[in-house]
UniProtKB/TrEMBL annotation:
Name by which UniProt lists this protein: UDP-N-acetylglucosamine 2-epimerase
InterPro entries to which the protein is assigned, alphabetical: UDP_GlcNAc_Epimerase_2_dom, WecB-like
Residue intervals of the UDP-N-acetylglucosamine 2-epimerase domain: 28-355
Source species of the chain: Rubricoccus marinus
Organism domain of life: Bacteria
Family to which this protein belongs: Belongs to the UDP-N-acetylglucosamine 2-epimerase family.
Keywords assigned by UniProt, alphabetized: Isomerase
SUPFAM superfamilies: UDP-Glycosyltransferase/glycogen phosphorylase
Pfam families the record matches: Epimerase_2 (PF02350)
A GO term for molecular function: isomerase activity
Amino acid sequence: MTILSVVGARPNFMKVGPVHEALVARGARSVVVHTGQHYDERMSGVFFRDLGLPEPEHYLGVGGGSHAEQTARVMLAFESVLQEVAPQAVVVVGDVNSTLATALVAAKRHVPLAHVEAGLRSGDREMPEEQNRICVDHLADRLYVTEQSGLDNLAREGIDEARVAFVGNVMIDTLLKHRPAARQRPLAVDVGEAPYALVTMHRPRNVDRAEPLAEVVRIVEALAERLRVVLPLHPRTRQRLEANGLLARLKAASGVHLIAPQGYLDFLALMDRAAVVVTDSGGIQEETTALGVPCLTLRPSTERPSTVEIGTNTLLPLAEAEVARGVDAILAGEGKVGEVPPLWDGHAGARIADDLMMWCKG
Ligand code: UD1
């Protein structure tokens, strides 16, 4: 049996790893295709080494561009690989443009399509990820769900529950597997014994326009008055800061450590030891909940409500005063303690592989 899994951008690598391993352990041929949406060593290569993933068998090298350009390039390049590999099923993960593009090609060529991390909805159609999630879930033949809200959303959208399986969270499989190694590592930045906030911001809504971006800078400065700040800069954010003349200001800010995007293990070590994580990421909301680290997510909504309802996550607006208040409460010991949501137990990849192989055998 041949199963083709797609990776494209940074948040995909840690999701495909557990599925690939579980498929191989069950004797399937698992072919990994990398679209090349993310191509920098720091956004892609280091993850393969950190996670012990095999080199992808096919690399499509599509790179950046507008959403339409990127999606179209992936579709064109993927179609011929799909014909060549001729798998019994295609597995796509998450919500990035590569997920949508390859799902469309598989569906149109009538290759059975499975979506890992199905059913998440932020309700915010401005987010490209939300558009991608909706389309992919409606194309998929088999939908693997991480949390209760996913089941509720898919039922509300009329997707047949016979196609849906609640399997848990593959990203947490990866986190639990690598946490011991991350705990052995020195931090990638020297903050001494001081408590620090780990900050990541890259959502177009927060960094693409001048006014929100200036607020991001003010938030970082307000945090730095209270504790050290470690800020790994996504390429998009770096470009926007530079274009708006704000990069030099952040570089000069005292107590702010601007660093390059980190590999998986270094970033996990940084999250695990942070006093607070301030982010607009999707996956980091889940990883901090699994680690029990307080997380402030600067977005109007989340597609991962279990992290707020059960875990350590709090949604806040992109506003300096509110973030400062949130961090002060956490530093005063009033942060959320939280619990880990059901089935985020390290075995989601195994459940998916079992189900997928049964399903493919029909
Ligand atoms: C993508 C995903 C987002 C995810 C994020 C994680 C979509 C719609 N968005 O956003 O969900 O949270 O990845 O990082 O798929 N760039 C580099 N080097 C790279 C990759 C990108 O310099 O290795 C540059 C690109 O040229 C582009 C910018 O960063 O200018 C954005 O890259 P892109 O893939 O378009 O989207 P992300 O913002 O990374």
